Each structure stands twice: as structure tokens, then as C-alpha cells.
Amino acid sequence: MASGTLASRATGFLRILVLAYVLGFTPIADAFNLANTVPNMLFDLVLGGIASATFIPVFVERLALDGERKAWRSISSVITGAVIVLFVASVLAWFCAPYIIDGFTALNHSHSVARSAGLAHERNLATALLRWFVPQIFFYGIIGIATALLNIRKRFGVASWAPVANNVICIAVLFWFHLVDPSPSITTLTGSHYLMWLGLGTTAGVAVQFVCLLPSLGRSDLWRLRLRMDLHDPAVKAVARLGSWTLLVVLANQVSLYVVIAFAFGLGGNGPVSAYTYGWTFMQMPYAVVVVSVLGALTPQLAAHATEKEFAALSQKLRMGLRQSLVIIIPCTIVLMVLAQPIVSILLEHVNASHHWLVGSVLAVLSAGLPGFTVFQLCVRGLQAMQRARDVFLLYVIQNGLTVALCIILGRHSLSGLVASISIAYTVAAVLALAVLSRHQVSITSTLWSVHVQRSLVASLVSGILMAVIYSVPTAHQGLGLLFRAAMAVIFGILGFVTVVLLQTKNAPRA
């Protein structure tokens, strides 16, 4: 799973680099990123959050209590209803595309005639792209359903590898677009057939990602699935009961994301939305490779322990997952915070660190909240396994409410203040989530000061100081000189980390 996730994230990372190379930090890039974000938001709102939070626990519970034959009748009812909802939502989103884009750009009120005209063109371009991206809502939905079915059959690998195909297709489409239109402008791009192929090719990548799952689905003994709709089925009722809370969770998440993107768009300038999008993607890399893989393997086990009321076993699994995650997430956090500017300069700004890049600041500030984000997500997954949907909802309300409040206070005129709101909110919410888990006989707080986490933290701090010192000594800001500065900082950081870990292990008291 980790290897597949790593390959998927690596190609997704390359996709971001190509996107930045082709579109840069321009209004076109902001229009593309805004339009490409909306289908993900709508999918989460319509089904994504509900599917990830309820499908696996409910399906596992039905299989454990009802047996295969009866359980698959229930599962069929849930899936049939989900597909219908996805189709209707996709059609509605296509018709409502102009109003959706207007909602995201409502905070950008410019008194400049030139800026107002540019904003109108940017809205038109984003609307046109969104209509080509809308089918992604449906495809993301059936990918989520297929992944849940594979997971309950203990098949995890193919779902982690499938996004590679999506990323490869999107990279190819972006390179093609750059070849046919190397210097695009909003006015010439809007309404052109190049725009159609750019949008269609991006959506085709998501469709191919689903196609890659079909062989594994065919080998997973899923022949019992039928088109069946029974609103009185116990599985449908369970999904509806848990999903109502989850829908409120997703709604809170999307409101918070809307505020962040709308404020970012309202700042104006060269690509604030793109800077936030790329910074968030970079920050998510270690989380996606490490924590998502851990959670993917643990979720069916957590659901099984919760069904049997085995809270001690559930606590042990969560502690193991948290320990495995934090010992890697902590050093990754330090690296991203210390080397955010050179990372961005090398990967997105053509090996040029002569300026203080906005996306580098975004990455550093977001990375500070990565440990809190990790702890929060693990706690939420444990609560979802126990079907404590109300508690999950309240936690997300607090986290998103704090994010919105801090955005208004800190982020109205600063993108760094905007993303700092996210980091602070997740860190506070992580502390509350640990307390909520403890109330339900699941205590994992001790993992935070376990010997493995302590070793990782001390070694990471030493490594971070070494990287900062080594990087600051040379003065080259471009080309090979910058690459040498960054490489030396990473090498000495790794050596420092390994040395401190070995010293701690050697001096540790023996049992």
C-alpha cells in the first residue's frame, strides 16, 4: 500500500510541477485550480465524506451479523442509492457551474476597471473548465465505492496504485497543451477547442483511474452485487443515520474550505489560489504516503474491533498506527518547515531562490500543523469505526469554526495568516479529539510521549538546526549553487538525524 501510495503521490507531485511549469502563478492557473477543486468539494459534500466514514464500518458490520448472502443484498441497496445520488449531483453541478464560480469569487471586489475586466474573464474561464470537470464528481464517487468494496475483501494495493494512471494522463494532457499553446492568455483560451481538450483530458484521467480497478473488482467475489433499492434495508438506514452526521461534517469542512479559497482569491496578485493549492499538496505528501497507508490497512480492523466491543484491541491498533505515523511525520514536518523556500524554488520556480516565494511561505506555515492534522485524522478514524458520528461532527465543527474565525482575524490581508489559521485549528482540534476518544474507553495519548516518538522528535530538532545552518552558509541563489546548498542541507540533516537516533538507542536503559 505504501509503495502504491508513494508512486501515486510521486506522479501527483510531478503533475503539480508540470502544471506550475505550464500555467505558472497566473490568473489562468488560479482559474484551473479553482475549477479543479470544486468537483472534489462537491463529491465530498454529496457522497465522499459519507462513503469514507460509513461504508466500510456498515459493510463489515452487515457481513459479520447477517452472513454473506443477506449482507450483499443490503450492500447492493446502499451502492445503488449512491450511484443515483452521484448522477443527479453531477447533472445539477453542470447547470449551476456559473453560480458556483461566482460564489467563490464574490469576495474579490476591485474598483479598478482593468482588474474588474480581468476578473470577469477569469470567471468565464473557470466556469468553462468546471463544466468539463463536473463528470469527475461521478467518477470519484464510483472510485470511492469500488475502493470500499475492495477494502472489505482485504484488497488494498490496486486502489493505491490506480491514481498513477490518472496522473500520467493529466501530465500528458498538460504537456500537449503547452506544445499547442505555449503562451496562453485568458481571452484567447476561453471558448477555444484547446480549452475543451484540456478539460476533457483532465477528466479522462479520473475515468481511467476507475477502469484500472475493474480487474481487481472482478477477482474479489463481488458477483452478488445487484441493482437494488430498498430504503428500509438496515444497511441503508445505518448509512443514513451515520451519514446525516457525516454530511454535516462535510458541510462544515466545505464551508471552511470555501472561506479559505474565497479569501485567497480575494487577495489578488499572482496566483494566491495556486500558491495555496500547491502548498497544501506539498504538505500532504508525507501524510498521504505514510498515514493514509496506515489508516487504509487499519480501518477494517478497527471496524471489526468496534463491532465486537473490543476497546482494548481497538486502542492498541490506534496507538500502533499513531506511533508509526508520528515517527515519520515529525522529521518530515521539520524538513518542510526549514527547507520550504528552497524546495519551492527548485521545483516550482526554475531553481531560482532570489525571491521569497509566496508558496514557500504557505508550505512552511501549513507544515507546522502537520503533526496536529495527523493526530486529529487518526482520532477521527477511530471514532468513525465506533460509529460515533455525533462526536466526529462536533469535533469538525470546532475545528472548522476555529479556522473560519482565525481566517477572518488573521487572513483577510495575508495568505500566510490564512494558512496559519488552518494549522492552529487542527492542532487545537487534535487535543480535543484525544480527550473525546478517552471518554469512549480508547486512550492513545500515551503514544505522544512514547520512546519512539521522543527519539524522533529530538533527532528531528537537531536535524532541523543542522539543515538551517548548512543551508545559510553558502550564498548562491540560482542554478547549481542553489542545488548544492539544498543537497548539503539535506545530507547533513539526514546524518544528524541518524546519529542522534543511534546515540539515543545506544544509551537507552536495557530491560
* Helical residues, percent: over 70%
DSSP summary, beta strand count = 0
Shape estimate: globular
Total separate domains: 2
- State mean pLDDT (0 to 100 scale): 85
Low-confidence stretches: none
Provide the gyration radius in Å.
Answer: 23 Å
> In percent terms, what proportion of residues is strand?
under 5%
Largest sheet features = none
The helix/strand series, from N terminus to C terminus, equals: HHHHHHHHHHHHHHHHHHHHH
Total number of helices:
21
Pairing-aware structural class of the strands and helices? Answer: mainly alpha
For the termini, the CA-CA separation is: 34 Å
Which characteristics define this entry?
21 helices, 0% strand, 511 residues, 82% helix, single chain, 2 domains, mainly alpha
Quick structural summary:
Helix content is 82%, strand content 0%.
Structure description:
By secondary structure, the protein is an all-alpha fold. The protein has 2 domains: 201 residues, no CATH class; 229 residues, no CATH class. It is built from 21 helices and no strands. Helix 15 packs across helix 16 and helix 17 packs parallel to helix 19.
Describe the secondary-structure layout.
Layout: H1 2-23, H2 27-66, H3 68-95, H4 97-104, H5 113-133, H6 135-152, H7 157-161, H8 163-180, H9 186-189, H10 193-211, H11 214-218, H12 234-267, H13 272-307, H14 311-338, H15 340-347, H16 358-368, H17 370-385, H18 389-410, H19 415-439, H20 451-472, H21 479-507
